[in-house]
Specification:
about 500 residues, Methylamine Dehydrogenase, Chain H, four-stranded antiparallel beta sheet
């Protein structure tokens, strides 16, 4: 028997209330009052919130030089600028003032004053920081300044050997002081990565995250619970589960890492694995109780729709059929879980880096962010093919059936509302707030308005910079990093 779809997870405004209440719980340490506006990648455990208001234009209010940092791609040492995938700023109000937390390619995690771009502190990692952090409000903190923590991953270490015993690419840093609170070893497995790109899901006094070694890890974020492990003090580990099969090496080689962030729905935590499956971990049974196979490399984080489904973006790799987007109902057995599949166009090998099609970034939806009453539920995504797509997530295209990633299974197709070329391909994730969509791509940033009929019209564009990081918005301001070297605050002035 399956439970009915759960009620929507608290919106950002409720996160603020929860954070403030948490500061006043019995036994909690006094200190700054925090409102968690965007405390993790894509807003919260259901990965479907992007801010409260997008502006109508992309004027530069301020920009911060994030500098450069070296990283290794195989044996080659490369210099990267700014910040890239997934790179969404976290937003926190501390005593009423808004701050950002962002990791960058110069190896530094920063706390930044949102009004001006002033850097409050920066903490150095051993390598480029690619992913997005997660905020954890520790009710048991001994030091009031350390009550709010940022748990952030990085690449393995520019001077680290892949086979060395300790690669501490997941760390916790005090939001109050910028000092390290703990580090976790991303140990070697059958995958070819020891990075950490995903954003931890933090529930109560537990953290949940599949590191890029594809070990789904349940841990205690509180530094007081640290244990000696692998020869260094690390957070207490409660559970570890491989999110791949050894047989996957025959089809994927070492490309079986987990780069996505976990999503919470109806008592299960869902993670898309590079091994080509979605894994559903039951919080009740503390084990995997649901899987959905695609065969492809999966990079994207899955948002939850209001009708209790997941939207899964699929890359065109290791599969005979196309990449695209699945709508999955995980209340059903995996063989009956597909509501629809929407394919994107393939691209010629070498025309857009190493990708051949499908989607690398995540799907954005309008279910939770300032959606007008009576507006249809919609989903938007950017293909490697360079198009921004807008589909109705609840309406099917009559009389159509699309071939799925396996090259043979037919699925219903959702209604396509609009499709516009961006001017280049993208691995980025758009955001969808109210009737506006912000789309980063390889040569710029475009802001669209969505009509009642689901048609896209361009409001403003910013060209000449490469954007692959995920933006966030708050009160009419956009915060987004670029590979041109800068973090931008954009808006109407």
């Amino acid at each position: 028997m399956h439970s009915p779809p759960q009620k929507p997870f608290p919106l950002p405004s409720t996160w603020a209330i929860l954070a403030l209440v948490g500061c006043l719980l019995p036994g909690a340490v006094a200190g700054a009052a925090y409102e968690l506006i965007n405390p993790t990648y894509l807003g919260g455990p259901q990965r479907n919130s992007y801010g409260n208001r997008l502006p109508g234009r992309l004027g530069v209010i301020w920009k911060l030089n994030l500098g450069t940092g070296h990283t290794r791609i195989g044996p080659e040492l490369r210099l990267w600028r700014g910040a890239g995938w997934t790179g969404q700023p976290l937003l926190v109000k501390e005593d009423g003032e808004l701050y950002l937390s962002l990791g960058a390619n110069d190896h530094h995690l920063r706390k930044i004053r949102a009004a001006t771009g002033e850097v409050i502190w920066q903490y150095a990692y051993d390598d480029v920081i690619k992913g997005t952090g997660s905020c954890y409000l520790n009710p048991n903190a001994e030091n009031p300044a350390d009550r709010l923590m940022v748990i952030q991953g990085s690449r393995l270490g520019v001077d680290s050997a892949f086979d060395q015993p300790i690669v501490p690419s997941l760390r916790a840093v005090s939001f109050g002081t910028g000092k390290e609170l703990w580090r976790m070893n991303c140990r070697r497995t059958s995958t070819y990565s020891r990075d950490v790109d995903g954003s931890a899901l933090l529930l109560g006094e537990r953290g949940y995250l599949a590191l890029e070694n594809s070990i789904f890890t349940v841990f205690s974020p509180d530094p007081a619970g640290m244990r000696l492990r692998d020869g260094i003090p690390q957070p207490r580990i409660h559970k570890e589960i491989p999110f791949y099969e050894e047989s996957d090496r025959r089809t994927h080689g070492g490309n079986i890492e987990c780069e996505s962030s976990p999503t919470l729905l109806n008592g299960r935590i869902y993670t898309a694995s590079g091994a080509g499956r979605v894994y559903g971990y039951s919080l009740k049974w503390n084990r995997v109780t649901w899987t959905f196979p695609t065969g492809s490399d999966l990079n994207a984080t899955m948002p939850v729709t209001n009708d209790g489904c997941l939207l899964l973006a699929v890359e065109k790799q290791f599969i005979p059929g196309p990449g695209g987007v699945f709508k999955l109902d995980p209340a059903k057995a995996s063989g009956k879980a597909v509501r629809w599949f929407f394919p994107t166009e393939n691209v010629a090998k070498g025309s857009f880096y190493e990708w051949q099609g499908g989607i690398i970034g995540s799907v954005a939806i309008n279910d939770r962010t300032a959606r007008e009453p009576g507006t249809r539920p919609m989903a938007t995504f950017i293909g490697v093919d360079g198009f921004l797509y807008l589909v109705s997530s609840a309406e099917l295209e009559a009389g159509t059936a699309e071939t799925g990633p396996d090259g043979k299974t037919k699925y219903p197709r959702p209604r396509l509302l609009d499709r516009v070329p961006l001017g280049a391909g993208s691995i980025a994730t758009p955001i969808f707030v109210g009737n506006r969509i912000l789309a980063p791509y390889d040569k710029g940033l475009k802001l669209f308005e969505v009509s009642a009929e689901g048609k896209l019209s361009l409001l403003d564009a910013m060209t000449g910079s490469q954007f692959e990081a995920t933006p966030v918005c708050h009160e009419g301001r956009i915060y987004i990093a670029s590979l041109d070297g800068y973090l931008y605050c954009l808006g109407e002035g």
